[in-house]
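hi! just following up on the protien thing from before. the input was this:
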Amino acid sequence: MLKISEFHCFVLTIVLTLVHANLSAQNLMISGHVVDAEDQNPLVGVTVLNSSDGSGTATDIDGIFRLSVSPDDVVVFRYVGYAPESKTFRAGEDTVWQIAMVQQVGKLYEVVVTGSKYEKAIGEETVSIEVLGPQLIESSNNVTIESSIQKIPGVNVIDGQANIRGGSGYSYGAGSRVLLLMDDIPLLTADAALANWNFVPMENIGQIEVIKGAASALYGSSALNGIINVRTAYPLAEPETRITMFSGIYDSPSDTAQRWWGNDIPFFTGVNASHRQKFDRFDLVAGAYVYANESYLQHDHDRFGRINIQTRYRVNSNLTVGLNSVLQLNRSVSFFYWNNLDSGLYVPADNTLTINQGTRMAFDPFVQYYDGAGNKHKLQGRFYKSDNRTQTEQGVLSDLYYGEYQFQRRLPVWNMVVTAGLTANRGMVNAELYGDTSYVATNQAAYLQLDKTFFGKWQVNGGVRYEQNQLDNLDEARPVVRIGSSYQLADFTFLRASWGQGYRFPTVAEKFINTSVSLFNIYPNPDLESETGWTAEVGLKQGLKINGWQAYADVSAFVSRYFNMMEFTFGYYPENGGVFPYGFKSLNIGNTEIRGLEFSIAGEGKIGNLPLTLLAGYTYIDPQFQDFDSLIDAQSTADFNVLKYRFRHVVKWDMLLPMEHFRPGLEVNYNSYMEAIDEVFNSFISGLAEYREMNTNGETVVNVRAGYAFNDNTEIFFICNNVFNNMYMLRPAYMEPVRNFTFRFTHKL
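and the predicted 3d structure came back as:
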C-alpha cells in the first residue's frame, strides 16, 4: 500500500507540474494605450514587438494595441522621433498597459516624410535629403520660398527655375526638372510646369524637405532632378496668433552711374498674419500676406495679396477629413534683359518688359482612414487654377485637377512598410500664347514601394512606378524604378547608396509656345519627345554632438545622366516662317552627364551657453555633354565641353545665434563663374560679352541680420542683404539686387 501511495503521489506531482508548466506557457492577450508623455496625445503607428518570438503589431488611430505574450516576455515600443520603451510582462500583473513615450528633440532625431511617404528618421533615408526649418526662413524675412531654398546646399534658383546639383540650366518660362510639392501634392502649373514661388504660404511653413536626385518612382514626371516639398504647419496645444510687418529700401549701386531713380528710392513693404488653433476635434489655420515691391530694376515691380485656410476634422478615432485652400491676386512687371553696359544695367532694353496680372487658387480636400487591420488609406486631391494675362494679349488660363489614393500597411513582424498608390491628373489649358487654342494633358500612374529593416540596422527600399501621359499627338507609357540602402555603422553614423530613374514629359509650353521677347522669337515644337535619366549616389551621414549642440555632417558622391534632354536652343528655323526665322525652340539636344561631390552640415542647439543654428555646404559638379560636337560648341560661349548655365563650385553658409534677447545671423553665398551661356546672347545683348570678360572670378554675396527679442512675444529684426553692394548676375543680362535694408517687427498675440 505504501509503495502504491508513493507512486500515486509521484505521478500526481508530475502531472500537476506539467499542467502548471503548460498553463504558465499559455499566451495571454495584453492591450494598451500609447501616448506622448508630454501632451498625452495618442501615438498612431507605434511598432509594438514581442522580442521573445518576433511577433508584433502597431497602434491604431487611438494609440491602442493588442499583443499575445507569455510571462517574462519583453515588449519593445518603437516610434520615429521618440525614445524606445520596453516592458517585461510578469505573471499575474495587469494585462492593460499605459505607455508614455518621450519625444527625442534635436537635429539627430529629425523626422522627414518625403523620401518614403511616411515619417522616417532622416539618418535612415537612402537618398540625400536636406531639411530647412522655419527659424532660418523667418529670421531672413524671405518673402517667397524661392529665396529660402537658396540656403540649401546643392540648390540654386535661376530666375525662378530651381535646379539641384546642376540638373537644370536656364530655360526662360517653361519646364522644370524639380518637382515642387505643397503637403505632398504637386504644385506646378498645368501649361508650363512652373513653380509660382510666391503662391506658397510663407506665413505657415512647418519645414521644407529637399530630395537631391531623381525621384520619379514615387512622384512621377518633373521629379527628374529632385523634389522640394513644403510642409505646412498645424496647430499645437496652445492657440497662436502672429503678425509681422516689414519695410525696406534699396541702396544705390556701387557704380553710381547705374542709378536711374534719382530721389525716388526703390522700396518694398509687406505684412502677414497667421492664426492656429485646436477646437476639440477641429484644427484651424488661417493666414494672409500682402506685399509690394517697387524694384531696383526700372519699371519692374511685384504686388500680390494672398489668403490661406487649412482645416482638419477628426470624425472619429479612425477617420479624418480636411480642406486646405489658397487664393492669390497678383500683378507684376517682368524684366528680361538690360539696356546697356554704361548706365543701363538696371534699365530694361526696349520691348523687353512683360506685364502680368492674374489670379491663382488651389483647393485641396483630403480624407484619411485607418481600417480595422491598421491599414492607412488616404485620398487627397488638388484643384489648381491659374489665370495669367499680359499686355500683349497672350494670356494663359490653366486648370489642373489632381487626385491620389494611397495605401500603407506596416508589417512589424517583418519590419516592413508597404506603400502603394494610384494617381491621376488632368491639365486643361486655354491660351493665346500657345497658338490661341486649347490643350488637354492627362496623366495616370500606379506606384509601389517596399521599405524593410534587417537586423535593426540595415534599411533597404525599392520602388516602381508605371506612368502614362497624353498630350496632343504624344501618348506614351513607361515604368521607372529606384532602389536604395542605408546601413547604420554606429550610433548616428549611416552609410547609404541609391540608384533611381527619372522621367519628364514635355509641357504644353515647350511643345506649343509661339511668341517673341524683343529680338528673340520663341517657336513651337510639336514633335518634342520626353527626356529620361537616372541618378546614382553613395554617401555618409555622421551625427555630431557637442555639449547640447546636435548636427549631421553629410558627404556624398553622385552621378546623374540625362537622355534626350530638352532645352530651348537658338537656331535657324525656316520651317516656322517669318522675315527673320532665327530664335529659340525647345529641342531634344542629346545626352548629358553630371558628376559631383557635396559636403553639408546642419545643426542646432547649444555649444556651452551659446545657441547655434547652422546650415552650410559645398557642391562641386562637372557637367558635360556625352556627345560633344562642333554644333554644340558653336552654340555656347565656352570652347570646351561644359553644359550651359551651371556653376561648377557653390558654397553656402547660413548661421543664426538665437540667444535670449540678441539674435545675430550671417549668410554667405559663393557661385563660381558661369562658364557657358548661349553665344547668341553675347551677340545680341549690348555689353554682355564685355561684362562677362570683366567678371570671371565668381561672386561672393554676404547678408547679415540682427534681431532683438523684448520677450517671448515681441521681436524686431534688422537685415542687410548684399553687404558689400556687389553688382552681379546669376543669368545673362539680369542684375541681382543691390544692397538693401529691411526692418521687421513680429508680435504674437
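The first helix runs from residue 2 to 25.
Residues 108-748 form a domain with the Maltoporin; Chain A fold (CATH 2.40.170.20).
cheers
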